Amino acid sequence: MKAAINTDLFVTVPETTLPCGIVVPAFMVGKYATSQSDDGKAIIVADRKPWTNINYHNANAACIEAGYQMITETQWLAIAHNVANVDANWTKGKVGEGKLFRGIREGNVSSAQAGDFEPTDKKERRWLTLSNGEQICDLNGNVFSWVFDDLHGDEKGVINKSFDTTDPSISTAPYPTLEKGMGWRPNYETSWSGVALVRGGYWLSGDRAGVFRLSSGWPVDDYGGVGFRCTKSL
């Protein structure tokens, strides 16, 4: 019997040095938010809606069952830092000019949309371009993603300490919260112990959405606006 063909779609993220000096090795990340197959497995395709209403722990387990890992905080920061330094991702065509593209966020839809959906509002730009020319969908809106916290988290990736004054989760963004398309992020010294990180924003986030958007959710709860994203090693 032939093995099933894996059609999951990934893009390569180049090795990235964050402003704080952390080097994030190159890796592969789902081109789209993870969807659910007919048999309940994690898949990465363009024509299915993101898998939402799944709690952090179950989302992490679904990534592992599929042979992948959940995206980590340093990996998300690597992508955000990379795309923020690409001219094509800014509304005025040059890094720092205008705003960093943000995706589905203005309430024009009532649920998370599949990767092949095209927003009617041209200001909702779902796609971000990496420095290697590859493109990734929905890190800046449509649906939040659970994130495994490898900076402040315990062995399960759940936060167990505060953000300090030099924290890369806060300091990597090149502009203040809610400015230039950064989305919202908390203040230094915020304590979210016991919760799990979510990033990006969802279809009702408005100006709070963005690739640097940082929020949280209870890891045992599921939310209609929160999905997850898989990664794998090169």
From TrEMBL:
<dbReference type="InterPro" id="IPR042095">
    <property type="entry name" value="SUMF_sf"/>
</dbReference>
<dbReference type="InterPro" id="IPR016187">
    <property type="entry name" value="CTDL_fold"/>
</dbReference>
<feature type="domain" description="Sulfatase-modifying factor enzyme-like">
    <location>
        <begin position="44"/>
        <end position="231"/>
    </location>
</feature>
<dbReference type="Pfam" id="PF03781">
    <property type="entry name" value="FGE-sulfatase"/>
</dbReference>
<protein>
    <recommendedName>
        <fullName>Sulfatase-modifying factor enzyme-like domain-containing protein</fullName>
    </recommendedName>
</protein>
<dbReference type="InterPro" id="IPR005532">
    <property type="entry name" value="SUMF_dom"/>
</dbReference>
